[in-house]
Each structure stands twice: as structure tokens, then as C-alpha cells.
Amino acid sequence: MLKQQNHDGQSVSEGLTVAGARTLYEKLWESHRVCDLADDEALIYIDRHLVHEVSSPQAFAALRSSERKLRRPLTHYAVADHAVPTRDRNAAIEDPLARAQVAELEDNVAAFDMPYAALQGADQGIVHVIGPESGFTLPGTTIVCGDSHTTTHGAFGALAFGIGASECGTVMATQCLRQKKARTMLVQLSGTPSRHVTAKDIALALIAHIGTNGAAGFAVEYAGPAVSAMSMAERMTLCNLTIEAGSRVGLVAPDATTLDFVKGRRLAPKGPSWDRAAAYWLGLKTDKGAQYDLMVELDLDKIEPQVTWGTSPDQSVSIGGAIPEPAMHEDMAARRQAETALEYMDLQAGTSLEGTAISHVFIGSCTNGRIEDLRAAAAVAAGCSVASEVTAIVVPGSGATRLQAEAEGLDRIFSEAGFQWRHPGCSMCVAMNDDRLEPGDRCASTSNRNFEGRQGAGGRTHLMSPAMAAAAAITGCITDVRKLAQ
Amino acid sequence: MKAQPFKTLSGIAAPLEQDNIDTDIIFPARFLLITAREGLGRYAFHDRRFETDGQENPDFILNQNPFREAPILLAGANLGSGSSREQAVWALLGFGVRAVIAPSFGEIFQANCLRNGILPITLPDETVRKLLGRAKDGLNLTIDLESQTIAVEDDVRFDFDIAPERKLALINGWDETAQILNQRVNDISAFEARQRQDQPWLYEREMTP
Ligand code: SF4
Q1: CB contact (8 A) between residue A458 and residue B52
Q2: ipTM above 0.85, yes or no
């Protein structure tokens, strides 16, 4: 299924290395290099900055204390998504800390004249969902956010990466960041995924193979016929999960699918400006004969729906496959880690996850909270009922996604099946609001991290695709959606 | 924000024998509701240090002497992976940690450490393992940033790498934002003028009144 090779002086795919040929990453890097700095670093210009309530207060505080201003206020876009309640948008936020955090963001955006998607409006949603939806995310740009899943926007051929709160303050004041150029990795996807094998499954299978550190230090570009055939939603899921393989950057070159998605969006260029931008964006693909530092091939024909069994995103198996024995790791630390994970998850090595009873289902997050994800889940849920012992919530990624889903009647399908239909936010992906697991709860989740306690202290998370999560909700246990659909 | 300068550090190293200690473990998400960066030390490794009823977990190494006060953490590979939350670093600082040693780090975490006066040291896997083994009985390390060495009690010394400019920034506690503003503003303006020519659509919103 997977081939890895190093290219020492050899071209990646077709024949000869061409002098001066550049990868997409190198083009994006060069076009944003303000100047070179010591330590092999460069000052990189930042075109777009997404701001949320959790990683921005300290950055705004630093601006205030040093009496600095935003260099270009309109290149930022703020929203409250992480800590907001998803049950009722009109009532005041109950949790005093969350209420204060959102109020602080509102004060800050007002004081610094920063564009803001208000909590009660249809523009509100998860940063990585509203960026693309509004046209704030554009191909060929550099995009940062105090959030590691900023990799998502790489699906547009943008150099997008997560940063810390101090760096957010640097971007606000200088529009720049000091960065070291990454090495490049090509992930070549071939073959045709079978039904119910989604971008989520492909990403989890890739991470299981290369490990949570497998792409560290690399900028990953996804290419191949299977990527060209993907929708923007699928590309975003793929790039979103790139950080779980340790890489801050996931990329897909802009093509006709990208342009179709961006065209007409509220903040996208219009008229003659659009034509000029579109031509520029289409020129951003990797040149023939350009070299990558590492190449990985994944044959999608052989991939099956994936489910994580452990507490790290690389601990996944094909549904129906057996949970690996810790003893298969020769390395003692890895063995101990697998044992700890099994203990935390209360699972046995050698068994299949199929039939493992769950208590919760979460459909949402910046990984799988888009309209396409909700459609896939609704298609499984239609006409069925959520198992009686299961609490299942559907949290659209944005206000626009929620409205679109309602226009298509998906909310009714979910509600009639017994899913709770919520307002947009990060919700149970990060459990900062009241959507959270209690110790011992077990959740089928479409989010991106199965870390210990990620969905609530003591909670257990199984990552999977939206259709697989919907199937688990219906049967009350981890289920192969392909069997349910029969 | 100016970080506390880092020159030398001597103290107990607490061994955390685990790979992939992510920032959710270092700083659980629910405490992200706190918007201050000071006073986060009490939440460092919160769910490892405390039981669900708030009692201290005596089995966790940072609850045991002499590791309670350890200014150095020794950990497995990929330390600080996962979420970009800088609160993880502020919590470590508040807890008294000034240096972290591991075979590899989450990239954003490593950058966050450097910006806050915590020295992240990458050592070969084998070396970290040896140190982890010895540290269980209480091991004193002396880190000298100027000479880029770690002295293990009196017997061995290890060299470590750090990029020269980062080293200077740590030693002097430089603030990166101020540095860019003081030294690079003309470069930035020149870049913007060029980009406005090449990609005018990136500036259109600022032109419409
Ligand atoms: S949905 Fe989850 S991963 Fe995405 S931005 Fe929110 S908290 Fe982060």
C-alpha cells in the first residue's frame, strides 16, 4: 500500500531533474520572502491572519502594552469558535470564563478595528471553515492562525500554518514572521477509493503508516489523480489532518476545482481582478522535474474505513482489523505507549473494534464539519434511529453550513433520527464548552485528536469518518458502515 | 513580550518516560478559557498531577520529591506535539521549568519555548534514554547555553546544537516583534509595494472606502 523513497539527486516522478524547476511550496515561499535572516531563516510576509478567542487575548495584550497597532487591520478576520456554547445562541453564555473570553475578543476587535464574524450572525463558525467559505482564504497566499489545524487552508494552494500566541502578536504588529524553510515531501495518491472510503480514512491510514512525527520538518504536498478528483471539502480534510503527521504545512495545487470553489465568494476578487488572480493561481503548481526531499505513495484501492483504537492519531486500524499487539514494537518505549493507550481506552489487543459499545457520537469540527460531511452522515442516518443509550450531536462547522443543511432538510433527518442539531463551534472536538465527555464515556467522533482527555477528562475517543460515526450512532457500537448500508 | 534571559541552569531533571507528550497533556483544553498568561503553573500536567476529585496523584513523578521543583524536563520523542497552544509553555514556565530535553519536539511547541525563554534541547534518542534511566534516582544537570553543553553531575558532558541567532535571542531575552520593527520595516514596506503591483487583489479591500 505504501512506498517511501528518498530522492538523493533524483527527480521525483518523471525522469529528469530540471534545473530551476520549483515545487509549489518553493514558489509560495519565494513569493513571500521579505528578506533573509540569520540561522538560515527568512522573514516571511503574512497575507491573512485568522483570529479566535483562545490564542488572541495575550497577543492583543502585548500590542496594548507596547502601544503597537495592527499594521493592516483588514488582513485579519476574527471569530469566537472554541469556547462558545452550541445549544442556544441567543442566551448569554452561561460559563463566566467563556463569557469573559468572548467579551474580551469583542472588545479587542472593536478597539483595533479588526473584521469580526459576530457570534449571533451566519458568518460565525470554526476559523478553518469560515476562512474558505467567506473567500478570506485565497490560493497563493500565506495564512496563519493561532491554531495547529491551519494546515486546512493548504487545500487551496496557500502556505498556511499554525502559530503560537506570541507569533500572533508579531503578525499583528509586523505582518511578518521569522521562519525556517521546510524540506518538501510529496504524497502521491493513486487508485480509486471504494465507497465509504473518505479523505478522513485516507489521512488516518497515511498517519498510521508514517507516524505522528513522520512528516515533521516537511511541507507536504498531496498530488496524483486521486487528489485531482477530490472536492475542496475532501482536500481540506486531508490537509487539516497533515498536522497529525507532525507537519505544519499540507498543500494541494490550485486547479479548476479550487477556482470553482473560490469564485463569487464574498471576499474573493471580482471582475478583471478575478481573471488576473485566477491566471496567477493556476501557475502555482509544481514544475515538471522539480525535486522533493521525500516521496510517499499511497494506493487508495487498498484502503478501508479507519477507526482509531488508541490515544494518538496514528493508532488506527481498518474496521474489522485487529488492534495490534504492543509486543509487535521492538522499541520498549513504543510498546509501553501502546500498552498505556490500550489501558486508557479499556481495549484488548488482538480484538476487533467492531461491536465496541459507545455512549456518544460527535459529528463536526474543522476536519469534518462541512456540508459534504453532514450530507454523508445524514445519508446513513436517514430513516434510522439513534440507539437508546447513545447521545449523538451534530455541530455544523459554520452558520452558513448550518443554513445550507437546513435548506436541504438535513436538520430534519438528524432530528427525526434522534441526533441533536446544534449551533456551530468547535464543541466536543476540544471540550472547552459544555459539550464534553465524562470519565469512561466512549465517543465515535469525526474530529482530529484522540488524545487522553481531549473530549473531556477521562473520555475515550475513536476517530472516524462522518458516515462511520453516523453508523455507530444508529447501532450503538463501532460499526462497518458498508455492512449497515447493505 | 520580553522573555527572561537564559544563560546557565543547574538543577534536577524530571524524567517523563513517554513519547508524544502532547500539549493537551501539558495543559488540558478546559483551562484555555483563562485569558491571562501568568499564573498558569498550577495547571501544568493538571490531569496527571491531580485525580478527578482534586487530590494529588502520588504516582505522578512531578508530585514526588525531588522532582516537584525540577527546572528541567527530560522526555521521550515528539514532546509538545499537537495543539499550538502557547499556554502549555506558559504553564511550564509558571511551574518553574526553564529547559526541556527530548529526542524531538512538536515544531510549534519548540518555537513557543524559544519565544518564552525556555531552552528546548534536542539530543540523540540513545542519550535521552540513558539520561532518563539515570534521572529516576535524581540527577543534577548543569546546562550552559554559551558553551552549548550539558554537564551530568561530575562525570559526563554532552554538547548540543542550537541556531546561533536563537541562542543570542535566548541569552539576551530579545523580543522578536521589536527586533523586526526596529530592523526590517523598510524591507517590509518594499515587499508590500512589490506585492501590490503583482497581486493587487490582496490590497483591494483596503482601497475601497
Ligand atoms: S474544531 Fe477542533 S481542531 Fe478545529 S479549530 Fe476547533 S478545536 Fe481546533
Answers
A1: yes
A2: yes
